[in-house]
Amino acid sequence: MMHSIKLSCVSLGALLLSSIPVLAASEPVKPPIVITGADMRPATSLNGEWATLVDPYFSGLFSFHHEEKKNGWFLNQKAKSGDTGPIEYDFSKSPTLKVPGDWNTQRESLFYYEGPIWYEHDFTYQPKTHTRIFLHIGAANYRSWFWVNGQKVCEHEGGYTSFNCDVTAVVRDGVNFVVAAVDNTRREDNVPTLETDWWNYGGLTRSVSLIEVPDTFIDQYDIHLSRGEGSIIEGWVHVEGGQSGDKVEVAIPELKSTASGVLSSDGRAIVHLAVSALERWSPETPKLYKVEIHAGDDSITDLIGFRTIETRGTQILLNGKPIFLRGICIHAEAPYRTGRANTDKDAETLLGWAKELGSNFVRLAHYPHDETMLRAADRMGVLVWSENPVYWALQFDNAKVLAKAEQQLDEEIETSRNHAAIIFWSMANETPNTPARTQFITTLAARARELDPSRLITAALLVRAEGYTKVIDDPLGKALDVIGFNEYIGWYEQRPETADQTQWRIDYQKPVIVSEFGGDAKAGLHGGDNDRWTEEYQANIYRHQLGMLNRIPQLRGMSPWILMDFRSPNRPLTGIQDEFNRKGLISDQGQKKAAFYILQKAYTEKTVGKPE
Length: 612
Ligand code: GCU
Description:
Layout: H1 9-18, E1 43-45, E2 48-54, E3 96-99, E4 116-125, E5 131-137, E6 143-148, E7 151-157, E8 163-166, E9 174-183, E10 208-214, E11 217-225, E12 232-240, E13 247-252, E14 257-262, E15 268-274, E16 289-295, E17 298-304, E18 309-312, E19 315-318, E20 321-322, E21 325-330, H2 344-356, E22 361-364, H3 371-380, E23 383-387, H4 399-416, E24 422-429, H5 435-451, E25 456-462, E26 464-466, E27 469-472, E28 482-486, E29 503-506, E30 512-516, H6 535-549, E31 555-558, E32 566-567, E33 580-581, H7 594-604
Parallel strand pairs: 21-22, 21-31, 22-23, 23-24, 24-25, 25-28, 27-29, 28-30, 30-31
Antiparallel strand pairs: 1-10, 2-3, 2-4, 4-9, 5-8, 5-10, 6-7, 6-9, 11-12, 12-15, 13-14, 13-16, 16-17, 18-19, 19-20, 26-27, 32-33
Helix pairs in contact: 2-3, 4-5, 6-7
This protein binds alpha-D-glucopyranuronic acid.
The site of alpha-D-glucopyranuronic acid (GCU) has 9 residues, from loops.
């Protein structure tokens, strides 16, 4: 804002308003909603080049007295003769960025940028009668605001979950425009908070589209195989705008099975389908069935696999059988081009490498990954650990922060609950052992169980040491079905061979998973087993780790850190890290390191871990 012209706010406001369409400021903006299976709905893609404006001072939205503007850049105004004030932006002349995509790897000047950026995109549309239109956002990191034709339609916080904004009232026949402001500024009371060991990729990082549904439509559903002898598929369907007594129907044609349900006052109908000759989903047989859901004028067809997951003492049972999870961690970093992963190809490359490693399991760290990744895991038969970004030291005593973590957890589960691949909801990673933290995450775990009693709850805990004995007694373990723990023997602590004499004391009779171990190596850098940063040193860590882990009787899985090198602002070591975390078994350019083959051998020959 130009400070030289000090017109009184009122007169300035009045002047400007006279030439600008009146905003229905009074109308509260509806919060965005979750739509389960949104990616299976007919949609108009808005992906492509969007005009952008970098706005470090957020002057496109806030006045010089930090009040939200009525005539902000969301109006996408064009200067015209006779204007009473200057229009100091013009999307039609500004540079573009690709959507979906992070801005950091698209434009060098934005590589380190953290702050607000404006996006504008024109689209033509023919609204239909008795049809609601939602602006579907796959993800926007971190805080985002959306306007269509100058009217605010929603705002959202959280960079890794999808949401949908009702734009039915503002979309018009013909040319329309959507404007978004996305701000990836890190703040202490965010989830995640200030410190992360991954790049803070900003922007509209996943697909954006317009989804059409009837006035009354199926917004959420949960269809899964009931635990037990496995001939009952159960669940529920929620109908937005549905009336008590309305009928819903769920059909699985391939199984010649149909069931109907009736909405109760909460808009939800319970369904039970009796099935026979069901081919259960598993890594060996990732069978997916077409599931058709009908409610009034609305229908959706999803592709769902049916399996059960549970624990029995220290065992994890997949379809009633003990299983050992041969896994690897994955960040949503795009192979080769780097930046936020968001395509089918990204997913198939990453999961393809995991399968080549001999994995039947992946830990998708440290935030919910894209639906493209989860669809690929369903198709390719890879079990998934999905995680809420409660990472390191959040403000655990701040109720607002708990509400944000709960909102992100709800969005994660409500969006992705029908993926057979997902067996774990992880509540957190490496959080400090304090009473506030334990209370915070115990609350989240109870919420996840209520939202989805068909899966297992876990978290990645820190371990403590008593001499050469590692102890897992974090009180948070009480709230978990399966205990994950991270350890870096041979990298951040001691030497690779220290693993040989390390004992483990685990104060829980539950299945445990080593959710992280490993060390950095620059692909192609060679030396002796004790030369840090070399492939040989990393391989040496893996050799000793596999021996040690085999001595933990209740170990039921592992996901070493990490499949592929990824960008991190905490890793500046020139010539070696160059702002990448190099703990990948594969470099970001696809070069397999020596340790890849160590783990591949152990996984394919099944010499590590015991299912029971
Ligand atoms: C931590 C953390 C990861 C991090 C890794 C590392 O344990 O969970 O996010 O990248 O260690 O230090 O490489």
